[in-house]
Amino acid sequence: MLTPNFSSDAACDTAGASWLRATRSFAVALLVACLAACGGGGGSSGGSNNSASTSGGTSGPSQQPIAANASNTVPVTVNAGLTGQLPNIPTVSVTVCVSGTSNCATVNNVQVDTASFGLRVLASALPSSISGALPVAAATGGGTLAECTAFADGYTWGSIRSADVKIGGETATNIPIQVIGDLATSSTPQACANYGDPQNTVQDLGANGILGIGVAPSDCGTNCTKASGSNYFACPNGTSCTVTAVSIAQQVANPVPHFATDNNGVILQMAPVSSSGAPSATGTLVFGIGTQSNNTLAAATVLPTDAWGNVAASLNSRSLTGFLDSGSNGLFFTDSALAQCGGNLGTFFCPSTVQSFSAALTAKDGTKGTASFNVANAQSLLGSGNNYAANNLAGQFGSVTSLDLGLPFFYGRYVYYGVDQTASGGKAPYVAF
After folding, report:
1. If we measure between CA atoms, which residue out of 154, 214, 160 comes closest to residue 183?
2. Could you tell me where the Low complexity compositional bias lies (predicted)?
3. Can you tell me the distance from the alpha carbon of 405 to that of 78, in angstroms, rounded to the nearest whole number?
4. Residue 383 burial (CB count, 10 A)
5. 80-258 sits in which CATH class?
6. What is the number of other CB atoms lying within 10 angstroms of the CB of residue 202?
7. Closest alpha carbon to 392 in 273, 288, 303
8. Which of 53, 166, 327, 402 is the 20 to 30 A CA-CA neighbour of 110?
9. Is the pLDDT at 192 greater than 50, yes or no?
10. Numbered ranges of CATH 2.40.70.10 in the chain
11. What's the distance, CA 7 to chain centroid?
């Protein structure tokens, strides 16, 4: 028996902030409940226009991650996590230091999110010796600089601080991060309520933080340099917060471009898992692309993207916006021909047989690619409460114009993210697999 915990883990499109293309993580809770049994979905379980029904399902791609034993690597883990609630949540350990000192704390269970940008850490995950010593950024005109980061069904609220960020053997020196939940609840701007419920605790977030390592160097670029498009707030005395413009240098920063080396992108490599799901999974996050012998670009499909990692997609004869997002714990798209589970599994899909899909992807420069994936019965995958890794978990949630290729797409694949370097005359952003 399952109860739902539909949470998200990165910013989503909001009115007045269409630049903030986000991950959309729609999590299913694996808490045992003593209520009604999970119900099956109604309607046809047949395939959609671009799908073909199969009886057994395949285990998907089979690339194995490299060993995480080099300075530009860090191990990735998917398991029950901190709350025992959320499947398909990839996490790493991140070390946060007071800049230029050895006053550091290692934060475990930080979610790897390839469709958001910047490090956000729960205040509760930092010892007071660190959180009290991290310099708080000042807003233009004075007061604490804070951010209300929009999620699919909620938001994180907290101050902007500067810190050294260490991941594996790489260090980003003195960059802005968000410390979630360090400000009084009463200071939360009314505008945040438009995004849903606060995600300022472990129970709500499902992790100790979010590591946004997508293609953008900062979390909102030029849009936040104008108050009309900003998620940032000036808080005199930590209260009476009002929206404010911020420079790019003040914005929460993707740590990867700030590494001394291996700073042009990342590769997320997840081990394959069984088509029937697994209790856990492992992987490796590799920093740099073509900078070391262990990070050569060897992808069959390379797709230049827009500034936020989006490409054009076509599925079921519909034109969509597609993105590859490790921060989403399922494959999310609209398909009226697929049965939804209903009950406590809501709009997750519960087809009677495994369905196979092939989506056409078109890059910004016209390059074509194909994303193939399977969709299995979510009740069968998650109903026992033992599986936290599934390569064919899917549902209908979020924008009807999106194809969200979440973590299930990553299992058994090397997925590359080239950081946008156009501001310095370098390469445009891209994704590859």
Report:
1. 160
2. 47-56
3. 17
4. 19
5. mainly beta
6. 17
7. 273
8. 402
9. yes
10. 80-258
11. 12
